[in-house]
Design brief:
Elements lengths: L27 H17 L3 E3 L9 E6 L2 E14 L2 E5 L7 E7 L2 E7 L5 E7 H14 L14 E2 L2 H6 L8
Antiparallel strand pairs: 1-2, 2-3, 3-6, 4-5, 5-8, 6-7
Bound molecules: zinc ion (ZN).
């Protein structure tokens, strides 16, 4: 399974700001994409990745939270409750972090690698990552949602070593 190159904002690739297309059917190609995305997420030490971030304009996301891996096609938010505010980063926006207010608890549904509809229910980081990744599928980057005055630069080397900074998604 190859590690794929991650598209960053400096590439000026419209894939990051364009609404992604629904997956018509989870076939072998989509399963391969999901697996490559997990590899890429691991290699980049991220907690989530959306297909547009690897230059594929399809509604596919992967997540890794609490040692659990999720692979989801056509994810949709079913419920979004409560509120959490925390620092967020993005593998496609290296070197910038900012405070984003999101729902504290979510229920999302989608289709897994076997084509079966599943639901993901979670709070905290999992809820934040799900919202961040679904935003990617709608062409929305976290930088458009940061609370005013909280966006700041971080040194990339320090970011990885600093436990108080949330992992990039
Ligand atoms: Zn991101």
């Amino acid at each position: 399974m190859p590690v794929l190159p991650i598209v960053v904002t400096a590439d000026h690739n419209a894939v990051l700001t364009t609404k992604a297309t629904r997956v018509p059917r989870v076939d072998e190609g989509v399963r391969r994409l999901m697996d490559d995305m997990v590899e890429t997420m691991f290699a980049a030490n991220g907690v989530g990745l959306a297909a547009p971030q690897v230059n594929v304009p399809l509604r596919v996301i992967v997540l890794r939270v609490d040692n659990q891996i999720y692979q989801l096609a056509n994810p949709e938010m079913v419920r979004c409750q409560g509120e959490q505010t925390g620092m967020e980063g993005c593998l496609s926006v290296p070197g910038l972090i900012g405070e984003v207010t999101r729902c504290e608890r979510v229920v999302a549904k989608g289709v897994n690698r076997h084509g079966k509809e599943i639901r993901i229910k979670g709070d905290g980081l999992l809820a934040r990552a799900v919202q961040h990744e679904i935003d990617h599928l709608d062409g929305v980057l976290f930088t458009s949602k940061v609370n005013e005055g909280t966006l700041r630069e971080v040194e990339l080397a320090t970011e990885a070593a600093s436990p108080e900074v949330v992992s990039a998604v």
